[in-house]
TrEMBL record:
Coiled-coil parts of chain: none
Organism field: Erythranthe guttata
GO CC annotations on file: cytosol
Domain Glycolipid transfer protein residue range list: 60-197
Protein's name in the database: Glycolipid transfer protein domain-containing protein
Length: 233
């Protein structure tokens, strides 16, 4: 079972499972989170911050990347169909994390690329941010479709989500590979097991992520549209 430890006052702290004899030494303020609940917690923190500060708030890049890095494991639970999306997402988050010390905030990376006419240049931080945003939206859409049906197989839920969020921006070769891999998706029960959830808890945690991720996605979109940068790429 994959568990993530979260101590009071810290966002995420990976935990190495202990033997039973060591449990008495564990911090009483520490709680174990499943991967999904850790993601939901992190995005609720971001969402609350944006709601409190407003959409003109200059969000810290390192804080943003810390939350986004937790989403990587969710891609892994979906199997080979989304392997490309997983690798691309991890790569983009890693690049943004590496840039956080130099640029500080999300606004700064976009302003830098505007000044250097590199907004849509492959490898630019602004393009990377756009791809990470699409990854967050893909997971949100898959969860939404997952909860709206009782289908045992996830092909329809995942295919519909991918077609809406990422397919328009991927090459024919990538789209073909993704759709071919849909047949290898885990079943509904297998996904719940991979996420270390139950039928009841998976619904609760997915709803938390869906609701919390929307303000974050809208915030990122506004960073582009407020600078007259279209979202069709």
């Amino acid at each position: 079972m994959i568990l993530i430890s979260r101590s009071e006052g810290s966002l995420t702290n990976p935990r190495v499972p202990m033997d039973d004899d060591d449990d008495v030494f564990e911090d009483s303020n520490s709680t174990e989170l499943t991967p999904l609940s850790a993601v939901a917690d992190a995005f609720e923190d971001l969402s609350a911050l944006l709601k409190a500060k407003g959409f003109d708030f200059d969000l810290d890049l390192k804080t943003f990347c810390g939350a986004c890095s937790l989403v990587s494991i969710l891609f892994g639970c979906l199997g080979i169909a989304f392997k490309f999306a997983e690798l691309e997402y991890i790569s983009k988050v890693r690049d943004l994390t590496g840039a956080s010390e130099s640029y500080g905030t999300l606004n700064n990376i976009i302003d830098f690329d505007i000044q250097n006419d590199s907004v849509k240049t492959p490898g630019s931080l602004t393009r990377n941010l756009r791809r990470v945003r699409q990854g967050l939206d893909l997971i949100r859409a898959i969860f939404q479709n997952f909860l709206s049906t009782d289908d045992y197989y996830l092909k329809e839920a995942a295919s519909t989500a991918y077609a809406k969020t990422c397919a328009p921006y991927h090459t024919w070769a990538v789209r073909t590979a993704v759709y071919a891999g849909m047949y290898a998706l885990p079943t509904r029960d297998q996904l719940i097991l991979k996420l270390n959830e139950t039928d009841e808890s998976v619904e609760r945690e997915m709803i938390r992520y869906i609701n919390a991720s929307l303000p974050v996605i809208e915030y990122i979109d506004k960073l582009y549209t407020s600078r007259n940068i279209s979202l069709d790429w």
